[in-house]
Amino acid sequence: MTGPTFSTERLVLRRWSPADRRPFARINADPEVTAYRFAPLTRRQSDAIIDQEEANFDRQGFGLWAVERKRDRRLLGFTGLARSDFGARFCPAVDIGWQLSRDAWGRGYATEGARAVLTFAFEELGLSEVVAHTTRLNERSRAVMRRLGMSRSDRRFRRPLVPTGSPASSLRAQSPSGVRLATGRREDSPVIGHGTAPPTTRSTDPASPISK
Fold it and tell me: Domain containing 44: what range?
């Protein structure tokens, strides 16, 4: 299977290329970009993400797309879907996530790319729900979830392998109307929140790991 390419007003969401490895490693080495993940990544760890996502596209037809800005063809980061199954109440689930370079923040790119991914998830994959989760401290990511129409869940959970007391140790699930805990149903536009898919929506058996 191959993942589709999406074109939005300002972005192209596409499969990864060898030329993406160096700029992606720079993004992953920025401690501010990775503040709510475990730590900045080495070049080898960054490359491993690209390898894993390319394998995911080949195997299941979706993954984390490279986000390229149209006006200068610059790699900004990623957005996409992954399978989560790490013991939280909402698992197994398919979740949506994004990560962009610091100088791309505050311009609406994360929301723009995520809307295209949600449309694909509900209309092409036929998912009945999509999940989003982040630490309670990551207000930027939570703001994107709200702009996507996701409803907040008060349920908290711990992500495995994250030390207690770290910024990512206590997380809230959040979802666009049609995503679970981030839960939700497919509507005319991709919104996510607690709910089920309408009868016309095909249901899949999702799950996966993503970070924001």
Answer: 6-183
* Token digits of residue 74: 């610059």
Per-residue CA distances from 113 to 90, 119, 129 (Å): 24, 10, 18
Tell me if 117 sits within 8 A of 13, measured CB to CB. Answer: yes
Q: Is residue 104 part of a domain?
A: yes
Give me the mean pLDDT over the 185-205 stretch. 28
**Residue pair 212/141 in contact by the 8 Å Cβ criterion:** yes
What is the rounded CA–CA span in Å between residue 112 and residue 122?
Answer: 16
Question: Does the residue 58 lie in any domain?
Answer: yes
Q: Which residue has the tokens 């989003």?
A: 132
Q: Is pLDDT above 80 for 69?
A: yes
Which pLDDT belongs to residue 153?
66
Within a domain: residue 130?
yes
Structural element, H or E, at residue 141: helix 139-147
Return the CATH number at 179: 3.40.630.30
Give the DSSP H/E element, type plus range, for residue 115: helix 109-119
Q: Which DSSP symbol is given to 173?
A: E
